[in-house]
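RECORD TYPE: inverse folding
INPUT: structure tokens
STRUCTURE:
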């Protein structure tokens, strides 16, 4: 854990007796990063568990593919809409308690899902799940943007983002086998109740709120100054692209493997789980490499932006191939989609944290996640609509590839130098190009 130990602007730990660079404070922040990664892991099991149950749920409730797509996208309605309010909350109140309350809500919603039997009731609980999870990413990036330096953010973001990929990997691998043997309801109940155990160590190790001077300064940076940045629009469009790619795989890959590629539930669990396992491993390795390149003298602009372009372009190409190849070639191509997904995920939020700085990290990430998660409204529903109309997955795969390539352009050309905005120089009404 020594690689996590270098951070800046950290308030003293809650004991009030240790300085920000003391061994006790360092150890505490190491555990905070681990807990954040674990919470993302739990978070993304939540997002993937309904897709794991989708083949059984579709038959049990007699749903069409379009209805199933609506159910899979319902989570994102409130999750996306709440991003800007969530960013405001974590910048104005103690991020630790805001995050803990959201975690409690989403854990209870997940457990309740296992007791429901109607389509409308499932829509309602998925909407509630979206409200609870909406505080997660603004909280993560408020903490990382405040407590850690640019030279460590690649790997630390990768730790958190690896949870994003490990969640679906374990969810599909283990959940697919559990659901295949015991049904989907016990799986939801166990996850919801078990997830609550995370709250105890969080209450013990959560970092102290940032110093009053930082909190007070952040009052003056609202949504409008963020939207006046050209780079903000670049990160938002890029986030929409990577989310479209991610949510297409999270929500529809298990169903596609079972109904489109005719795999058994056990085979689906193994192959689908490996896709996200590859994404997690790629995110960790690439995140570490990018930090080393920056320490060796490469600029964050070249390293961070180059990683995003590579991940998006390669991911789009892999998706096109996955749509058309047959036989044994399909599996390695499928693994490539996960690998390029991990490369993309490892650096995007590090760019945002560098641009926003600790004074605006929560709200910038809220704006970015709001626009980015509109992809969650579109991707699952549009895929269901197209599958209903065509009976095939060719069009959804090709559309997702095209969106990934648009994202490569957004990260590469929509953002200039990756360095913090000088908020003090921003004049009212001034549109600021990337520095």
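DESIGNED SEQUENCE:
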């Amino acid at each position: 854990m020594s690689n996590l130990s270098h951070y800046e602007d950290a308030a003293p730990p809650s004991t009030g007796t240790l300085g920000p660079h003391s061994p006790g404070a360092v150890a505490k922040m190491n555990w905070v990063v681990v807990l954040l990664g674990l919470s993302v892991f739990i978070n993304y099991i939540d997002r993937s568990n309904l897709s794991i149950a989708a083949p059984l749920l579709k038959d049990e409730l007699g749903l069409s593919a379009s209805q199933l797509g609506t159910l899979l996208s319902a989570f994102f309605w409130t999750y996306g809409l709440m991003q800007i309010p969530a960013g405001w909350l974590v910048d104005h109140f103690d991020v630790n308690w805001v995050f803990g309350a959201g975690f409690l809500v989403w854990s209870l919603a997940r457990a309740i899902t296992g007791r429901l039997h109607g389509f409308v009731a499932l829509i309602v609980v998925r909407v509630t799940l979206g409200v609870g999870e909406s505080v997660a990413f603004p909280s993560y990036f408020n903490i990382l943007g405040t407590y850690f330096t640019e030279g460590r953010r690649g790997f630390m973001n990768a730790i958190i983002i690896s949870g994003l990929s490990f969640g679906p990997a374990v969810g599909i691998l283990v959940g697919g086998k559990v659901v295949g043997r015991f049904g989907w309801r016990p799986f939801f109940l166990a996850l919801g109740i078990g997830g609550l155990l995370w709250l105890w160590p969080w209450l013990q190790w959560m970092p102290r709120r940032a110093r009053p001077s930082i909190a007070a300064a952040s009052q003056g940076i609202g949504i409008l100054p963020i939207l006046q940045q050209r780079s903000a629009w670049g990160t938002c469009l890029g986030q929409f692209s990577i989310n479209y790619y991610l949510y297409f795989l999270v929500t529809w890959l298990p169903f596609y493997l079972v109904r489109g590629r005719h795999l058994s539930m056990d085979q689906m669990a193994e192959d689908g789980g490996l896709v996200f396992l590859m994404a997690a491993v790629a995110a960790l390795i690439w995140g570490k490499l990018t930090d080393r390149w920056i320490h060796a003298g490469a600029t964050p602009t070249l390293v961070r932006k180059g990683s995003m372009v590579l991940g998006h372009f390669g991911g789009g190409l892999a998706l096109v191939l996955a749509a058309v190849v047959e036989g044994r070639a399909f599996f390695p191509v499928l693994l490539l989609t996960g690998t390029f997904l991990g490369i993309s995920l490892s650096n995007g939020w590090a760019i945002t944290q560098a641009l926003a700085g600790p004074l605006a990290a929560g709200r910038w990430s809220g704006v970015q996640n709001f626009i980015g998660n509109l992809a969650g409204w579109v991707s699952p529903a549009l895929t269901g609509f197209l599958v209903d109309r065509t009976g095939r997955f060719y069009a959804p795969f090709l559309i997702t590839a095209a969106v990934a390539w648009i994202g490569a352009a957004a990260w590469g050309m929509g953002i200039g130098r990756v360095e913090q905005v000088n908020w003090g120089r921003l004049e009212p009404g001034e549109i600021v190009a990337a520095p």
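NOTES: Residues 23-61 form the longest helix (39 residues).
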